[in-house]
Amino acid sequence: xxxxxxxxxxxxxxxxxxxxxxxxxxxxxxxxxxxxxxxxxxxxxxxxxxxxxxxxxxxxxxxxxxxxxxxxxxxxxxxxxxxxxxxxxxxxxxxxxxxxxxxxxxxxxxxxxxxxxxxxxxxxxxxxxxxxxxxxxxxxxxxxxxxxxxxxxxxxxxxxxxxxxxxxxxxxxxxxxxxxxxxxxxxxxxxxxxxxxxxxxxxxxxxxxxxxxxxxxxxxxxxxxxxxxxxxxxxxxxxxxxxxxxxxxxxxxxxxxxxxxxxxxxxxxxxxxxxxxxxxxxxxxxxxxxxxxxxxxxxxxxx
Amino acid sequence: xxxxxxxxxxxxxxxxxxxxxxxxxxxxxxxxxxxxxxxxxxxxxxxxxxxxxxxxxxxxxxxxxxxxxxxxxxxxxxxxxxxxxxxxxxxxxxxxxxxxxxxxxxxxxxxxxxxxxxxxxxxxxxxxxxxxxxxxxxxxxxxxxxxxxxxxxxxxxxxxxxxxxxxxxxxxxxxxxxxxxxxxxxxxxxxxxxxxxxxxxxxxxxxxxxxxxxxxxxxxxxxxxxxxxxxxxxxxxxxxxxxxxxxxxxxxxxxxxxxxxxxxxxxxxxxxxxxxxxxxxxxxxxxxxxxxxxxxxxxxxxxxxxxxxxxxxxxxxxxxxxxxx
Amino acid sequence: xxxxxxxxxxxxxxxxxxxxxxxxxxxxxxxxxxxxxxxxxxxxxxxxxxxxxxxxxxxxxxxxxxxxxxxxxxxxxxxxxxxxxxxxxxxxxxxxxxxxxxxxxxxxxxxxxxxxxxxxxxxxxxxxxxxxxxxxxxxxxxxxxxxxxxxxxxxxxxxxxxxxxxxxxxxxxxxxxxxxxxxxxxxxxxxxxxxxxxxxxxxxxxxxxxxxxxxxxxxxxxxxxxxxxxxxxxxxxxxxxxxxxxxxxxxxxxxxxxxxxxxxxxxxxxxxxxxxxxxxxxxxxxxxxxxxxxxxxxxxxxxxxxxxxxxxxxxxxxxxxxxxxxxxx
Lengths: 303, 325, 329
Known about the structure:
The structure holds 3 protein chains of 3 kinds. By secondary structure, chain A is mainly α. Chain A has helices at residues 4-16, 20-36, 39-56, 58-61, 93-129, 131-146, 149-160, 164-190, 194-202, 206-242, 253-260, 268-296, 299-302. Chain A folds into 2 domains: 1-35; 44-300, Orthogonal Bundle (MetI-like fold). The longest helix of chain A is centred in the middle third of the chain and has 37 residues, at 93-129. Chain A starts with a helix and ends with a helix. The relative contact order of chain B is 0.14. By secondary structure, chain B is an alpha/beta fold. Chain B is 30% helix and 23% strand. Chain C has helices spanning 52-59, 86-92, 104-107, 114-126, 130-143, 149-152, 162-174, 192-209, 220-226, 244-249, 254-262, 301-305; strands spanning 10-21, 24-36, 41-45, 67-76, 79-80, 97-100, 180-184, 212-217, 229-234, 237-243, 311-314, 317-319. Chain C contains 12 helices and 12 strands. In chain C, a hairpin with a 2-residue loop joins strand 4 and strand 5. Chains in contact: A-B, A-C, B-C. At the B-C interface, helix 6, helix 7, helix 8, helix 9 and helix 10 of B face helix 8, helix 9, helix 10 and helix 11 of C.
């Protein structure tokens, strides 16, 4: 009894000859085909990869110490020797651009992971358990949301000292609420689905259900949200640095912008390049987030 | 004949409003004083319209919902007071098939993962054994050769195929009792027949007791041994399939039968049609007396005052109606 | 401009509506001929994905993107709908041509009172002044059998049951005194006793208003009890058409007879349920030749190669099948 569904399945297996690895590769390939259609998403991906490469290869790309002053004459315009010029103290802007990427990426990703971790855990528990536990967690979440996070960041960093570690923790702790609310909503709707009921009917434990049934279906939201979290933390960190509250021993774009303030007219390159760097990185992650969202929630678009 | 599942005086009330002030005052009477039993190798059809409580009753019998009061016996054992742990052991023996096959299969799992899950949860066999069983199950439900299907995701299948996978999952660990809640309602007519044939074959092969819940009486005619009609949480009539269709006693059963379209134009145009007035009353504020009397076309005075009890009319035919007693 | 009552009300010829999706062209309606006479109830029956809803949407010119009418003509009351401008179409819709949909909750505005929604239609279609619209709305609600109409007119859709909502939709459809009422699975979402009420209502109103009814459904039982003439649709094509008694007692197309055999009835116990193998085909790459041939128990060689043409069996009964092509084709 051959089905139309059979035909679909047959075509794929003819191409694949079974096997889990081939199936995964096939899925990746077809997803990429669909993702490609979103030009903005592809641009975003390019930007993200570009900066990852720059960040990883920083010591090779620019052998100059970004924090060392007087590597060349001060306030030199972009030229062959100094592709992005030098700042008022003779620091190589190009080197700052390249090395700044490292710290931005590091902070961005670490923060996003921490924030996502806390957010998903709390959101999942609140959404799945419901009742009093949900109310309690939501109360805490709302308290954090009400606080103007950037200012709290400032205060905490100013009080406890501006090390990278502190900055990461502070940003993470202040950005998990949005993830938590998102995941809570997902869990609340997913726990009512029939396949979860079916899992219960088979005898699966709560933990099984949360980890194996619901979480994989909430992955879409988590991935998209994490991408946006990275963008957000890079921006916050740049802001903190710009106000002088970042770690002074670390090269960062925000600090470069801060330094560039008095010289905006004469040495425009001091502000332009770190500014573009921040813009492109944050834009990149945002576009990737949108692209992934369109890819993983396709039904909204086709009809 | 072994009695597989038995429910005695089952009640399920849901609180109608969530706030503290109205506890107990207005409850939703989903299931009210229901006695039911199913034997081995038997299919009991459970019919009624939306809000009659058939879905809730099915879930109570299979252990997914705890009844407000009443006893459920599985293979003679009282399972009403079972803890979650106790239930876990019993789960493989009582399974449920839902209406929407796409919704009852986890979209992020492959068929292999879905079908292996019951074995893994109950620690039955090693990887090779499980793989073997999964292949055997797929072939049993007509998805053969199994190798073509195991590593696919639910959205890659047609509706009929998905429902076959759902059947396969429920049979994993040799259940004794299966509740099929509108198993074919979301499928095309041509596919419906395929799946019903499959259900019959599987029931014969595995000797399961089946509770077939549906609102479509035409399906029950060809699928069940006995039929039970529910209205607003109560059983109003219960009889063998032949009796119910040839000699319906309760006015509601007559109305249901009259309202079910028949695919035969000559018969359709010469039928006696009964059209009920109005909509079913709310299951929250239940009027006294017979629950059906507000829509009944032949009610007596007694009907609004005294609630009719289930009486045995002849042999197995049971009905709750003042007119017939 | 009304045409003489001998002329059919609706004549569809060679209609083709295709959807241009990223996966390919979905040939949802691929060359159908259909006719509805005055005061007639015509059934269009088929399973999911056969294109019957697309036919309804095409007649109303409400085809969702990325669909387009490729070819064909739809002559309604003397005018070709496909040649009318958007303005002219809008003047027709809701007045002479009305439609009732499947799920009343989706088609009613949840934040507008039911009475206001009907009044809107009344003002638009009957050109009644606004102050009289509410009275008209109450009258319409009474006509569709809603009790306490003067109270219900101020209710919101969510306060009504499924059956009541469907009655409201029907009231809205009737507000313009339509010549043709198209009902697309109007009772699929309803309980069976409510379905019986609604179908009886639609039948009664059709008589009252002297309208024609195009009833689209997958339920052969509904077709058997309501329709005068039936069209059977499969994979975008009409495979058989005829008088309802003729079709049920004398089906000529293997798909039609299979559907009838598959259909369960409360009147007979079917021990071994007849089943058609396989499923409805993909409309992007439909099978070659006769679209039913992969599932047909009586397929011949020619069925794979060439599409069969319609052949008249007798009177209204026409079938497109190679089994009948020799006779009179």
